[in-house]
Design goal:
This protein has helices at 16-34, 50-58, 102-116, 131-139; strands spanning 6-10, 62-68, 71-80, 85-93, 121-127, 143-148, 157-163. By secondary structure, the chain is of the alpha+beta class. Strands 1-2-3-4-5-7-6 form a seven-stranded mixed β-sheet. A hairpin with a 2-residue loop joins β2 (62-68) and β3 (71-80). α1 (16-34) packs across α2. The longest helix is centred in the N-terminal third of the chain and has 19 residues, at 16-34.
């Protein structure tokens, strides 16, 4: 990845439709692979709308957009919770732009933000059967904490956490 042409910027409300489009496009491959539809998982990111993004922003979720040579190719969001845990949300990289380090750059950006917020952990939930994604997060230092079934989802969720501060800070 050539850093000279990469920019990660904080999104604004004017980016709502762009973010929704990035998220829908990136998560479409996941939806097709795992048989996810608007009917069986209406809140899956493959159905993301700008209204979802706006509601997230109103709740305090911070979105970031990664641009390569001025073109948006990915995004991620962070949600701060009062329990000392932040959550990585909506990590999305366009299918033709994957395996170039953009996802890692977005995760690193969110990790830095979580640390500035004083979080002790960064959490994420993914489809448990998405083994290569789980392994990718584990290579970044995330640890599987548990898997859960949710009545409103047609898949099992794997919850991973990244410790942000060890002994001594």
């Amino acid at each position: 990845m050539e850093n000279r042409s990469i920019l990660i910027r904080t999104a604004t409300h004017t980016d709502g439709e762009l973010l929704a489009s990035l998220i829908r496009t990136a998560f479409d491959t996941v939806a097709r692979r795992f048989g996810i539809t608007p009917e069986n998982a209406p809140r899956h990111p493959s159905s993301c709308t700008s209204e979802w993004v706006f509601r997230d922003m109103e709740r305090g979720v911070i979105y970031y957009i990664l641009e390569h040579d001025g073109m948006p190719v990915g995004c991620a969001a962070i949600e701060e919770k009062p329990d000392g845990i932040c959550y990585l949300e909506r990590l999305a990289v366009l299918p033709g732009c994957r395996k170039k380090g953009y996802g890692r750059a977005l995760v690193n950006n969110v990790v830095l933000k979580a640390r500035t917020l004083g979080a002790r952990e960064l959490g994420i939930g993914i489809i448990d059967a998405h083994t290569e994604l789980k392994e990718w997060y584990q290579r970044l230092g995330f640890v599987e904490k548990q898997t859960r079934e949710y009545a409103n989802l047609p898949f099992r969720v794997c919850l991973l956490r990244l410790p942000l501060a060890g002994p001594g800070g």
